[in-house]
Amino acid sequence: MLTIAMPKGRIMNEALSLFQQAGWPVPLQMELDSRKLVVSIPEAGFTLFLAKPMDIPTYVEYGVADLGVAGKDVLMEQARDVYELLDLGISPCRMAVAGKPDWQPDLHPRVATKYPRIAESYFKEQGEQVEIINLHGSVELAPVIGLAERIVDIVSTGQTLRENGLVELGCIAEVTSRLIANKGSYRLKGEAIQELLNQLEQVI
User: Fold this and answer.
1) Any idea what the Cα angle at residue 86 is, between residues 83 and 87, rounded to 5°?
2) pLDDT tens track of the chain, all 204 residues?
3) Buried b / exposed e across 129-140, counting CB within 10 Å, b at 16+?
4) Beta-carbon neighbour count of residue 114 at 10 Å?
5) Are 72 and 11 contacting, i.e. CB atoms less than 8 angstroms apart?
6) What is the rounded CA–CA span in Å between residue 56 and residue 67?
7) Cα–Cα distance between 111 and 123 in angstroms, integer?
8) Residue 111 contacts residue 130 (beta carbons within 8 Å)
């Protein structure tokens, strides 16, 4: 059995749909008992762990899950010691810098984000000194109320930015979901993992 950590929500449905297309008999999220956090699918040879997206790389790094599906944004932010095996190409979006349309450079600019590691690295590469403010909720609020001049966040359609009077000021990285593996599991269960990889690659 391969244990696979799956993020709850839209990414999970897209990932399970890929697995189905690749010939694996897995249910979609809507067909699963929403109260269960561990789901065994013996006919596919899988056990699924249903978790929050930010926790997926932790489960995989510590080996309680052999594989996981995680967004590139989460992998960039956490820098966990895992193998990134395959770009699944699902849930595309981008990590962007945003702010008000009339934003002007400041001597001591503040940037609000849920991704402090990514933001700090990006602005350091740009040679720009900023103060990073770590938030956990709707970071779009920060420029509106004057907490920060800019934000770093995931942008998909840009609708939330527009509704709050913000615009994209730059793109840090394109983001999709990736299949990741525990390093020990990749050695011990390499044959089963490679079979899954080959099937998914054909579909993608």
Assistant:
1) 125
2) 899 999 988 888 899 999 999 998 887 765 666 678 888 888 988 999 999 999 999 999 999 999 999 999 999 999 999 999 999 999 999 999 999 998 887 776 999 999 999 999 999 999 999 999 999 988 999 999 999 999 999 998 888 999 999 999 999 999 999 999 999 999 999 999 999 999 999 998
3) ebebbebeeebb
4) 19
5) no
6) 9
7) 10
8) yes
Q: Which amino acid is at 2?
A: L
Residue identified by tokens 């593996």 is 181
89 phi and psi angles, rounded to 5 deg: 70, 15
Q: Where in the chain is the domain with CATH 3.40.190.10?
A: 2-91+176-203, 93-174
What would the two tokens of residue 18 be?
């890929």
Q: What's at 114, amino acid-wise?
A: K
Q: The domain 2-91+176-203 belongs to what CATH superfamily?
A: Periplasmic binding protein-like II (3.40.190.10)
pTM attached to this predicted model: 0.88
Does CATH number 3.10.20.30 belong to domain 93-174? no
For residue 32 the two structure tokens come to 């699963």
Give the H/E segment covering residue 27: none
Find tokens 């984000």 and name the residue: 113
